[in-house]
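Weekly puzzle thread! Below is a chain. First person to post its structure in token form gets bragging rights.
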Amino acid sequence: MIIFRSQKLRNAILECKIRISSFLMNPNIVRFKIGKTADPIEKRFKETEEYKKDYDDIILIYETQDKALVDSLEKCLIHDYRMTYPTKCKNKQEGSGLDCADSEDDTARIYIVVKYM
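Winning reply:
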């Protein structure tokens, strides 16, 4: 069970879940992963071998200048979606290990990568 530390985090989780769930209603999505980056999402997709090989699209879900929020948000979303969609959500752990705070870019982003039928 995850305890929410702030109203800001609760609001961000709700906003992300609405966006992610709207995409996951597409019956043609066979798998997805949730991630975070401080890079533009197109760059992240092109520079990640697994994504280029195993996924068809990357979708921006949330962006903010609060990098600590994005770090917490990613963990919460992965935890929830691994439980809700155990066969479709392909994240192996809660959190990517990447630290958006280490980036020089001012904006941190949550995204999903998806594979269609």
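Puzzle host: Confirmed. Bonus trivia for everyone else. The chain has four helices and three strands.
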